[in-house]
Amino acid sequence: MKKWLIPMLVPVLLSCASDPEENFYKSTQVDKGEIDSFNLPKHAINDVVKGLAYQMLESSSFVNPKTPIAVASFVNLKDLESTNWLGNQLSENFVHELQRHGLVVIDYKTTGHIRVTKDGDYVFSRDWQELPERQIIDYVVTGTMMEQESGILINARMIGMQSRVVVATAQSFIPSWVIGEEINPNQNVKMKDGLIIRDSAMLVDDERAVEIQN
Prior knowledge:
This protein is α+β, with helices and mostly antiparallel strands. It has five helices and eleven strands; from the N terminus they run H-H-H-E-E-E-H-E-E-E-E-E-E-H-E-E.
């Protein structure tokens, strides 16, 4: 019986000593909440957001499964009115992470109808005229991006929509090799300065209703 035991153990030991990058998603994220950016594989933006979400939820005592949360694009710190593919990707990943932690996440870009076209069927829109006029949102998660010599510094925060109080924060650094390509300023998505607010008969008197702006 002992002669058979040794050959059976060898494949098991070899599998445990496999490339650590292969087991990154299986073991590292389960065992620790804080993310070491400098040990991330390339293009692992989602793992950076995992660490940011962990920091944020650990420091917040106001948010619970009954408080609706929205996630906005992360913006450039220089002007606070422009974003890019990274800022939008960070917000999309935050939607997943917050929902995965059991929070109520409001996707305010959902139109409430399916627009069928020859190119595809769509329920999302960035046209404010297609979106509900007012939505119930207690907190918003957003943040800033500051480009540095070797990467991007991310500062995330959770803010009360009515109080403007910052109830949770998180910070992380994304090295250039994780991003995979430089931030191209020509790819910025500009936000308009004007405010167009439309009344909603159903929610106009609700203090928790948040106005959707263009």
